[in-house]
Design a protein that fits this description.
- This protein is an alpha+beta fold and about 475 residues long.
- It contains 9 helices and 4 strands.
- Strand 3 and strand 4 form a beta hairpin.
- The longest helix is centred in the middle third of the chain and has 68 residues.
- It is elongated.
Length: about 475
Amino acid sequence: MKRLISQGLLSIAAMSILGGCAYEAASFQEATASLKTETPKGERSFVAEHAEGNVSNAWLKSFNDPTLVSLVEEAQKNNPDLSVAATRVEKAAALMRLSESGLYPHLNIRGNFTDFDYNNRDKGYFVGSVSWEPDIWGRLTSLNTADAEVLKSVAADFAWARQSLAATTAKVWFSLNRDKMLHDFMRKIVKIQEKALYVAKEREEIGSGTKRDVHMVRAMAAESKQMLKNFEIMQQVDTRSLETIVGRYPANAIVPQGLTEMPPEIPASGIPADLLNRRPDLVAARHRVAAAFHNEKAMELLKLPSISFRFDAGYDHVHNTLAKLISNLFMPVLDAGRIDALIAAATADQKSAIANYKSVVLQAWREVENALAKEKQLKERYDYLSTTVEEYKIAYDMTVETYNIGEGTIIDVLLAQSKWIDASILRTNIANQRLANRVNLYLALGGSFNAKPAWNPDYAKTHASEKK
């Protein structure tokens, strides 16, 4: 009898393993085929002009700014939002282990003791119990595989959060440096205008100028002081934003340095489909689709019968020993549509995951196209503005010289100065936009800010070892 029971258990275990493996392979192929048919085609090259080549990691170092590298490292350690994303990975890993535990036998110990029963005798027992539900149809394997796919998607989400945090840190740092440059420039303008106001007053006193000239210069000086104060406020706001990101607020200890030089042009792979394996957010969306397929199949398998076994062995006060094997068979017959409702809900999740994947892919391609197009446009604008600033500065200096020898009017000087100031401020803003767009381009192409891979599917293990 015991031999027959053992053979039966081994047969059921074999059926469970083979059934689970067969379904896992079929589900993966099914999910992959669906992705290929449902997602947009991407074999053509990007429309926007770009240099051909592979996207490289460690883009942070391309800006040649040690302070920026230090700030990003600080943000990765201290940012609370990133810590929240890390805990999601830990939770997903725990849930995967929870579902995986259902595949293996469980050992429990039970006991009870009462000092009397109806026959006025002491009564008690102590039992060790082994229970197991063979995964004959692969339902438990499907649930565990779905949780594993969810873990991979959450790990990819975490990698995307790290990259996005690095990008945000870089862009706020660039904005802060832009604020400093504009503040320094406007402080220089204020000094020039204060000197011009003194000259205008002197000329008005000796009769070679007018009160109108004095009022015009004083108004321009006041306007410049207002702009100086505005740039000071912008610098304070961006300082607080950056300190919040890196975990220093409210230290007020970050010192801006001025905008760095624009790095050389970066290569971008010409086939949009290459993004699918590089960008962590796309990888995460793809794993969510696979998880939805596995979960939907698990719901369908609820309609099939399930078998479970339990073996108890221990001590009973009455019978002295206790040993029994219990087997259970469960087969749903009428459940008022419960399983059908679960299947319908899982199918809806599956459709939602596929639609979300399509949306994320299209958004990613659009982001790359926009960043590539802006790369060229902003460079052209910056070159034009550099010429504009240079020419306006020459014209302003010549107008001042003419005015100092008694020719021309203060209006000519102020007009030339205003043109020079506006062009200089705009050029600085465009320089900041170029740096920010370069960060956006790296992010859109799926390049990582450091030398490590863009995402790590085994993050849960590596994160646990890092914490130790």
